[in-house]
Amino acid sequence: QAVALILLLCVSGMRAETARYSVPEEAERGSFVANIAKDLGLTAEELSARQARLVPEGEKQYLQLDQHTGDLVVREQMDREELCGQSEPCLVRFEVLLENPLQSFQAEVSLTDINDHAPVFLNKEIVLKITETAMPEARFFLESAQDPDVGNNSLQHYRISSTDYFHIYTRRRSDGRRYAELVLDRVLDQEQQAEVAFSVTAVEGGSPPRSGTALIRVVVLDINDNIPVFSRSLYTVRVLENSAKDTPVAVVSASDLDSGTNREITYSIVQNSEENLRTFKINPGTGHIRLKKPVDYEETKTYETDVQATGGGGLTTHCKVEVQMEDVNDNAPKVIITSLTSTISEAAPPNTVVSLFNVWDQESGNNGRTRCELPGEQPFSLTSLAADAYALVTLEELDCEQEAEYNMTVRACDEGFPPLSVSKTLLVGLLDVNDNAPSFSQDVYTMVLSENKPVGTSLGRLSATDADAGNNARVRYELGPLPPGAHAAASFVSVDAESGSMRVLRLLDYEGLRAFKVMVRAADGGSPPLSAQAVLRVVVRDENDNAPVVLHPPTDSSATAGKLVPRWAREGYLVAKVVVVDVDTGQNAWLSYELAKAMELGLFRVGLHSGEVRTARAVSERDAPRQRLVVLVRDRGQPPCSATATLGIALVDDFSDVFLQLSHAPAGRQKQQPQTPAEDLITTYLTAALGCVSSLFLLSVLAFSVAKFSKA
What sections of the protein cross the membrane (predicted)? Predict the structure, then answer.
């Protein structure tokens, strides 16, 4: 049952008391110990939801937590004597870890001893040799019985069967164990009774009490020698732990006043525990005590050994040798990870717990005092939670894009001399959070495409990158909202959602649309998604897909007699100007003129770039009165496009002859060539312009005359 209320360990660093429970040793598997959920103030469902688990101090798991009920139960039977020997109390320590949030508390279960062992004498027959000169109240040491139980269940006292010569006295050693001394009640007489036999019984304090019995045979010796005497009744020595086999421990010395062989003394170690017999040996002749095996302070701190000296006549005496172990700093601390979060979110706030661990050193004193540190510069720190319990927490905000994982070394060091240390490596990865929006390499992209390219032609590719990882860095593209007045541009192009490739959806005509803009949006795959926008400017490149168009002279048949040249015209006389337009641009609209056909070679020439038709020489009487020229107009596109203009030229002596001819022209011919609406409109404009000029001239003359008269 629980004997103390559990106080929860908060990850903020608040210290917690250790929860203490108890359970009898050898308890069956599944035996109830305590209800963890109740002590934590949680329901069993909450305990299960927070993934509660036990972390033992050692390698073996003796207890387990029932996730459905929150009960702490026995998983493996525990033998107190096997786990702790004679040490008290015998504790099984563990931690209870809770997730979401990460919390921990320490607990321990005390194994209460049950009376599962009876006292046992290693020798079933004990022989004592006592001289008949021994006086009443003389004391004689008896071999001890062994009982691994502790407390009331351990050996409590000795008793002997009925005898007229002795009674027994139970004494306690410094380590708490009990031993027996046989006390002489009356003088022995070898001639009357050479041997006295009786039994000795070791009784424990269990319920019911258990006991062990041995036979004591007292051999009465005739008066022929003296009892050996030790120089000291108690020898106290100190030995460094880890001392090697055969290391000297102590030298005991006893003397005998007898002479001859009776003064020869033999030394031996009395059986008072198996551990003493396994650890020490004595030279029977010299009394030198040495180690039979290396000793460990952490296992046993003090040994109390009984040494017996036996004279040549068989008389014995005893002394005690107390061997105290001196601790040596021979055990480095141990770092025991109780909880480790291998991955944490990069958005985790400062002081987020990453790992919980304990530092344990089995040494004592300064050798067992430890400190813990985190070498190097890391965005993490160590927080002390309790004695030798630490939490690794975040020190600042983390950024997965700068550092995806951290390889940290926790170093624990004791305060011994020389100090010993141990290092533990912790690998913590960062989980990416969608905290970075995609970024285009340019704010404005410009792509050029020639007009008349087929549908599906690639314009190019836009590229956006995202500093996040995984799905948070997966970028998809789409056309974004268009600027006001540019809604039609969305139908001209498309964007591939995965690659960002731009393709044309319609035939583009430079003469109809020279450039347009669209907005492209890049969004990542995070939740919620982040996005960025860039402007795509598409420039349409002109192609030579339009031939030149002749505006003058008009292409009707009346143009053949449209130009008059007097016969007195000299070289360079301007005959006409061929007017041509090309709706293309650039070199596709650069025009050149040449004379493709003429009736009189050498009479006329045309300007290469101006299109002006001039006389190449003076007109002569021999030249035909009517001339016909064909002018070829060609642009500089690839391939070039061209057009032709036909000029009709009449060579006249006087312009009045022409007017006379026109006025007497046959009516039928005039009817054949009626004026076009355009010619009527031009005639109207010319008449109106002439009237306006004449009116302005008359008004000017009138104003000038008025001014003159006014001055006069």
Answer: 685-707
